Amino acid sequence: MSNKLRLGVLGGGGDSLIGVLHRVASAMFDQYQIVGGVFNPDFEQNKGFAEEIGLPTNRIYSDFDTMVAEELKLPEEERMQVVSILTPNFLHFPMAKKLIESGFNVICEKPMTTTYEEAKVLEASLEKSGTVFALTHTYTGYPMVRQMREMIKEGVLGKIHKVDAQYYQGWINPIIHDEESRKSTWRLDPEKAGISCCVGDIGVHAFNLIEFTTGLEVDTILADFNYLYSDNKMDIDASVLVRMSENVKGIVRSSQVATGEENNISLAIYGDKAGLKWEQENPNYLYVLTDDKPLQVLKPGHAYNSDLSLDGTKLPPGHPEGIFDSMGNIYKGVAKAIRGLEYNSGEFPTMRDGVRGMSFIEKTVESNANGNVWVKIEG
Questions:
Q1: What's the superkingdom here (predicted)?
Q2: What per-residue confidence (pLDDT) applies to 315?
Q3: Which of 47, 73, 159, 191 has the highest count of CB atoms within 10 angstroms of its CB?
């Protein structure tokens, strides 16, 4: 029998971008084998999709509860070891909770839950189970983001005093300006997406990148949202001031109505010795800025990079790697954890990141609703 980890998948069927991303990532390092799941709520479409991607249909289930029940009947050496949750936001919590309590390891799309309280419940369940949980803040998998983290840890920047994270998209522009379209999109429906659209979907990525790279935690925030229309209940643009300590401050900027923008993520961290800048649309370049030397550009795959960066680099220098590779690095780290192997804490985001992220999302909503006031992050 194959020694690959047996992977189940929930959601991600049809033409889902996130489904393709996870399937490719799971195959990248030959650590996983997809054995079944529930790709689509319609059973016939579910089976049809499984056949389309070459999976046998004997472990393609009609619904989530049936999958868990049937998998638990199998001998431990045959049942799914880890399950990826790629469904709409409102299903993340109930699925992850049941999987954890049933002894499965979990890889979950973000946001982890729809409320901070759910996140705390999930955290308590994980502590009891002792299983592995990973949250796919995908951009932490990029080699040069990991290099950024390690350089900051080594003190290259000195004392940090300024952080600036941006995530700009324009995809919702054609939807938000049409009354019927904005009422029928699940990401603008609080019942399915949670209390936030823009911050919950992309702003939380920028927030996570700040904490991932600096090793510091955001303490208080002040948020200003834009909804554009009075009948729209969800934020589609947000500017969030952040304070990490008395002397470390910055901003998280996110927008889904930044006309013409595709996936413009940028991160800049400044200290008293140097600064570091990275952009997701040009992910192979990490810029090092100082006052007394020319601009320095670091690239992946070279021996001058950290072990964590090099572990996430598959190709020789000069061969571009991208979003699939970044997600693949997260899956690789999770495989190490499940197998009980030694791994770097930066190899995949954890439950802790999910709890922090949900607190950030809720507190931005609270800050904006109360007149753009400073509020403290919990968790």
A1: Bacteria
A2: 86
A3: 47
pLDDT tens for each residue of 49-91: 999 999 999 999 999 999 999 999 999 999 999 999 999 889 9
- Where b means 16+ CB within 10 Å and e means fewer, 314-336 reads beeeeeebebbbbbbbbbbbbbb
Cα 126 to Cα 108: distance, rounded to the nearest angstrom: 13
Partners of 354 in the β-ladder:
none
Range from 261-265, 308-312, 316-320 carrying the lowest mean pLDDT: 316-320
Fold assignment, 5-138: Rossmann fold (3.40.50)
pTM: 0.93
In DSSP notation, 169-238 reads --TTHHHHTSHHHHHH-GGG-HHHH-S-SHIIIIIHHHHHHHHHHH-----EEEEEEE-SSTT--S-SEE
The b-or-e profile of 36-50 (16+ CB within 10 A means b, else e) is bbbbbeeeeebbbbb
pLDDT at 194 over 90: no
- Which of 3.30.420.40, 3.40.50.1100, 2.20.28.20, 3.30.360.10 would CATH assign to domain 143-315+350-369? 3.30.360.10
The angle subtended at Cα 8 by Cα 2 and Cα 9, nearest 5°, is: 140
The domain ranges of the chain are 5-138, 143-315+350-369
* Residue from 217, 379, 206, 215 nearest 308 by CA: 215
Cβ atoms of 332 and 318 closer than 8 Å: no
- Residue whose entry in the numeric block shows the structure tokens 């390092």: 29
Instruction: Kindly report the number of other CB atoms within 10 A of residue 187's CB atom.
Output: 20
